[in-house]
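Quick one before lunch.
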Amino acid sequence: MKAHDGMYIGGAWRPAAGPDVIEVVNPADEQVIATVPAGTAEDVDTAVRAARAAFPAWAAIPPAERAARLAALRDVLVARKEEIAETVTVELGSPLAFSQTVHAGVPIAVAGSYADLAATYAFEERVGNSTVLHEPVGVVGAITPWNYPLHQIVAKVAPALAAGCTVVLKPAEDTPLTAQLFAEAVHEAGIPDGVFNLVTGLGPVAGQALAEHPDVDLVSFTGSTAVGKRIGAVAGAAVKRVALELGGKSANVILPSADLAKAVNVGVANVMSNSGQTCSAWTRMLVHRDQYDEAVQLAAAAAAKYGERIGPVVNARQRARVCGYIEKGVAEGARLVAGGPGSPREQGYFVSPTVLADVTPDMTVAQEEIFGPVLCVLPYEDEEDALRIANGTVYGLAGAVWAGDEAEAVAFARRMDTGQVDINGGRFNPLAPFGGYKQSGVGRELGTHGLTEYLQTKSLQF
Ligand code: NAP
Ligand code: MG
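Model of the NAP complex:
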């Protein structure tokens, strides 16, 4: 796999300050496919200076011109869609078809949505005797994870650029090749030098240096709640804007009037997709006790069908972590009805699609984010019990409700403490705000709400 041996800073690939490198591993066969430089605080500082220098001009150009550059970026991503999908597949391990439709397809849609929004958003409004200007916040430090490697980059960089901000990106160490490809696309799209900069590296080194850099005005982070808390603390101490998109433990609530087979099958597919590495996955399935045994059987059968189709998890550490959770679930009294902690293949970081039944709300597997292909099925007594269980975690990122009619599902969804709810299997909407209640985060991504994260207001009184 081809890789740049430098950082993309100020519109050019430049040598890293230090000699360290990161090995990129294909999780499907455990082979090293490339190396990229591991950035230091010095690289981060050079990148932040480049972003600062580029900021005044980028902030000042008419939004229509920023929109044109974002449209060009979208077009480059479209032209390189196949290459994007292949790159995500070799460094993340997701099956190629999923990489094409989701890992490449969704970021193209999101980049396009910000080209449109940059052209149409009202960056000035009249409020009584005031004119309110919506101005870019400044230099953005973006820190992204590996599970949707391009989507999570585009969901930060596209709105930041649309707003008139400039960006330094520190992508996940596991998926730097997708980030390098994105930097090439930015360059090809004719986005001015220094508006977007890339520093590959390790979280506690390059990521931390970026979050702590005094000349970064806003830190946007997606990843674990543990790291998110630290970044929030650093940003708070410096009175910096911060956006945190963290973990989840979302509930899939199947009400008695629902089409049970459909709700279970879609629910299993939701958890197994991307090998369970989706922060908004519905990892807790809640079923009325009268339908519980049937639901468990359906879920076990649906999970077994995924055995051959599922990709590996991202690395050996994640595999060990996920399998540790499966063992812990069984030790705490859950019943294994599909999959298990053993290795299904000789090579690669594969985990069998797993279903744990008889999970109770207080078990570790019902409370903590597993981030692997593991579904927990829990029985509930009545609607109030279902609501208590659904809301009974520190998280609140997503969820689902199934019922015989939409109104019944919506009535339940209104009472859920969570940022997104899919009603009877509703489709992903790249324009709807995405983000968490409670410890799932601060701020929203996507659409207009994602754009306003990168804007601050100035009121002029007349
Ligand atoms: P993570 O450590 O939070 O990684 C997210 C990003 O933050 C990566 O770019 C990471 O760099 C960086 N980072 C790590 N430590 C940092 C620090 N001290 N300062 C600044 N940046 C730092 O997550 P992970 O280790 O990849 O995964 C661990 C768990 O997090 C998963 O099992 C899952 O539960 C959760 N997770 C959630 C999401 C989500 O979308 N909400 C995504 C991924 C993971 P490195 O790549 O070098 O670590
Ligand atoms: Mg990490």
